[in-house]
Amino acid sequence: MASSASLTAGVAGRYATALFELARESKSIDRLEKDIDALGAALKESADLRDLISSPVYSRADQAAALKTVASRMDLGPELSNTLGVMAANRRLFVVPRMLEAVKGLIAESRGEVSAEVVSARPLTDAQRDELARTLREKVGREVKLDERVDEGLIGGLVVRVGSLMIDTSIRSKLARLHNAMKEVG
C-alpha cells in the first residue's frame, strides 16, 4: 500500500502536468506562472482558503462555487480556474499546494531553470540574492530561481535546497552539531 504522501504527490503531479500542458498549448505559461504565485500567496495568507480546500465538511458544490468566486476575484486564467473546478468536483483540492509547487517545477524546467528553496534568518538584500543566485548557477549549471522565505529560528545563516542538494549554513544546525558532539564526548 502506498503511503499517503506518495499518493498525494502522485495526484498533485498528474494535475500539475495536465495544467502545464494546457497552458503550453494555449501559450499562456507566463500567465499561469503569475496565477500560481498569486494563488500560492493567497493560500499562505488566508486560513479560510486553506480550510476550504482541506476540510471534508464542505460539499463538492460548495467548494466548487467558492473557488469559482475566488478565481474570478483573483482574475485567474481559465486553465487554472477550470482545473480547480475539476479538482473540487473530484474531491482533490487537498493537493492544491503540492500541485502549485509541481507546476512551478514544470515551468522552471521548460525554461531551463531550476528552483532553489532558500530559508534565511532575515530577508536577503538584493546584493545577497544576486550573489547567491550567481553561486548556485555556477554550481548547478542552470539558471536558478530563488524561492525565499524567512525563519528567524535559524538564528543566522541559510538553508538552501536545490533538487536533492541541501546546503545548511544556519547557526541553529551548527549549534545542534556542537551539542551532539558534546554528548558523545561527555
Topology diagram in text:
Blueprint: H1 4-25, H2 29-45, H3 47-54, H4 60-73, H5 78-89, H6 96-110, E1 113-120, H7 126-140, E2 143-150, E3 158-162, E4 165-168, H8 171-185
Parallel strand pairs: 1-2
Antiparallel strand pairs: 1-3, 3-4
Question: How would you characterize this protein structure?
Answer:
It is a single chain. With 186 residues, the chain is an alpha+beta fold. The chain folds into two domains: 4-108, N-terminal domain of the delta subunit of the F1F0-ATP synthase (Peroxidase, domain 1, Orthogonal Bundle), CATH 1.10.520.20; 113-185. 63% of the residues lie in helices and 13% in strands. The protein contains eight helices and four strands, in the order ααααααβαβββα. The protein has helices at 4-25, 29-45, 47-54, 60-73, 78-89, 96-110, 126-140, 171-185, and strands at residues 113-120, 143-150, 158-162, 165-168. Strands 2-1-3-4 form a four-stranded mixed beta sheet, sandwiched between helices. Helix 1 (4-25) packs antiparallel against helix 5 (78-89) and helix 2 runs antiparallel to helix 6 (96-110).
